[in-house]
């Protein structure tokens, strides 16, 4: 779990850096709060958060396993699809550093 937490910290820092570098300050809150206004994204976030909350409310080994699976679903299904955009940019020699970070996250 310590390794996962460390990787997640780098992941968050990478996204924050890109958002603050690419997106004008007046649009950042929209990006950060998009999950609140987009029903599909909000439902997905609430589903995953609900699985985490089950473990917080009842920390059994089974709920721990479910929360780990939720984490892998979140990373594997939702974020991986977003990484494709940056791999595409890197293939055109745009933002290669960001693609390198995402390759490390994938590993």
Automatic annotation (TrEMBL):
Domain of life: Bacteria
Name of the molecule in the record: Ribonucleoside-diphosphate reductase beta chain
PANTHER family: RIBONUCLEOSIDE-DIPHOSPHATE REDUCTASE SMALL CHAIN, RIBONUCLEOSIDE-DIPHOSPHATE REDUCTASE SUBUNIT M2
Cofactor(s) named in the record: Fe cation
UniProt key word Transmembrane: yes
Organism: Limnospira platensis NIES-46
Gene3D superfamilies referenced in this protein's UniProt entry, alphabetically: Ribonucleotide Reductase, subunit A
Keywords tagged on the record: Membrane, Transmembrane, Transmembrane helix
Pfam families named in the record: Ribonuc_red_sm
Residue ranges of the TM segments: 77-95
InterPro entries (UniProt xref): Ferritin-like_SF (IPR009078), RNR-like (IPR012348), RNR_small_fam (IPR000358)
């Amino acid at each position: 779990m310590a390794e996962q937490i460390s990787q997640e910290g780098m992941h968050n820092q990478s996204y924050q850096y890109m958002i603050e570098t690419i997106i004008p300050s007046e649009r950042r809150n929209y990006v950060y709060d998009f999950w609140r206004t987009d029903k599909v994204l909000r439902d997905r976030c609430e589903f995953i958060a609900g699985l985490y909350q089950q473990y917080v409310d009842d920390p059994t080994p089974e709920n721990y396993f479910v929360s780990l699976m939720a984490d892998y679903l979140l990373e594997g299904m939702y974020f991986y699809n977003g990484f494709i955009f940056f791999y595409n940019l890197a293939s055109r020699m745009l933002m290669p550093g960001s693609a390198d970070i995402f390759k490390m996250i994938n590993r």
